[in-house]
């Protein structure tokens, strides 16, 4: 029926649809819970989940990835999105020791800028500072990377001016590439293949005039984005629901209005043949912005339904920092699994503790608050 | 001594594996038979709260499951579970965690398969 049948037939199952109307949206919440539909079993079933689940990488480049995650609930997709932004660890500069700074940019402003520089350090090579032995947070060669920023600006060739009347200056711009890594202890061998440094060497950190200088020691540690955005491994991590445009066969778009109809959608979504008959390009449908422009025109009333597919997530993840874009999603799953394992272990204690305190409370009628 | 220097990080690794019993606790006023109870998880938020709520609600033995973050500036997550009576709330929680874990494994496997098709190896 449609020009290029790219969408599976199951995409047209109305239960999967979120309605998009002129002034409101409908059927937003998922309904796949036991007891929601009479005589239907919606309890958790791994085999059924495996059958329905679809992951498809749509686009992969140096810095970003677009993939579809189909057949999961919004709570699951959202968990991964949130983890990508806030809980996948990276390494960033956290402690700044300013030995000298005679530039016009204040110490704290410069320190903040330096902290935001993405480093190319694989976080799995660095331990957590909070797990350090002895005194908590003690730096050592396994949890801290040291950089120096010794730089001063001077005139090249004395006071001579060039033809345009300007002076040649050395180190007029302090850039991220000026950070000098200082290997500590075993780091020389550990980071031999990939010496730590900024992923982009051309980030301007400060500007200097002749005679001004900056000398700093910088300590980079492992952290997560929820503590500070500088530890976030992504530039963006977002999803949108797959758009769905359904033409009404009962009320076709009048041929003389076909071009106007097509212009209501993103380019390529609506195709018009030589007879002025309108059809939807299913392959390009995912690119539609669902702007609802078509719903503003009286003449198109009832011609078309705008929808989105509730369990079809189009993820877009841009990597910033050490992770390859395709690795980021896997890292987020790993973090999720660690979270679950931690709680699972702790909840074992709940199982054991369950039978013990209860008889105690029953014996004298009072609940003792001994255990915190 | 070099020997000692080497030993220290090993200890911390063992510490990491230690179970953090403070992570989750049973809140007071659970029912006597244990079929309805509230739990409090430390240092978790909507990320885990909503996902866990969803998967526990998928359990046909569970009548109600909900979560809340009682105060935005405290890193605490409350989860309420009430069952129909055939299992306890703690059991429902454990089943939920297991199901969520196998869900993650499935997605991970699927994603890796896809990457192989695209021709990327990680």
TrEMBL record, chain A:
Annotated Gene Ontology cellular components are: nuclear DNA-directed RNA polymerase complex; RNA polymerase I complex; RNA polymerase III complex
One Gene Ontology biological process: DNA-templated transcription
Q: Where is the composition biased (Acidic residues)?
A: 363-372
Sorted alphabetically, the keyword list is: DNA-directed RNA polymerase, Nucleus, Transcription
Q: Write down the superkingdom of origin.
A: Eukaryota
Q: Which Pfam families match?
A: RNA_pol_A_bac (PF01000), RNA_pol_L (PF01193)
Signal peptide start-end: none
Q: Which GO terms describe its molecular function?
A: DNA binding; DNA-directed RNA polymerase activity; protein dimerization activity
Residue span, DNA-directed RNA polymerase RpoA/D/Rpb3-type domain: 64-346
Q: Where in the cell is it found?
A: Nucleus
Q: Where is this region: Disordered?
A: 352-372
| Location, primary (coarse class) | nucleus
Describe the family membership recorded for this protein in Swiss-Prot or TrEMBL: Belongs to the archaeal Rpo3/eukaryotic RPB3 RNA polymerase subunit family.
What is the name listed in the Swiss-Prot or TrEMBL entry for this protein? DNA-directed RNA polymerases I and III subunit RPAC1
Q: Which organism is it from?
A: Cerrena zonata
Starting at the broadest rank, the lineage of the source organism is:
Eukaryota, Fungi, Dikarya, Basidiomycota, Agaricomycotina
UniProtKB/TrEMBL annotation, chain B:
**Localization in the cell:** Nucleus
Where it mainly occurs, coarsely classed, is: nucleus
- What InterPro entries would the database entry show? RBP11-like (IPR036603), RBP11-like_dimer (IPR009025), RNA_pol_Rpb11_13-16kDa_CS (IPR008193), RNAP_AC19 (IPR033898), Rpo11-like (IPR022905)
MF GO annotations? DNA binding; DNA-directed RNA polymerase activity; protein dimerization activity
Q: Which Gene3D superfamilies match?
A: RNA polymerase, RBP11-like subunit
Keyword match Membrane? no
Record flagged with keyword Magnesium: no
User: What's the family?
Assistant: Belongs to the archaeal Rpo11/eukaryotic RPB11/RPC19 RNA polymerase subunit family.
What is this protein identified as?
DNA-directed RNA polymerases I and III subunit RPAC2
Its source organism is: Cerrena zonata
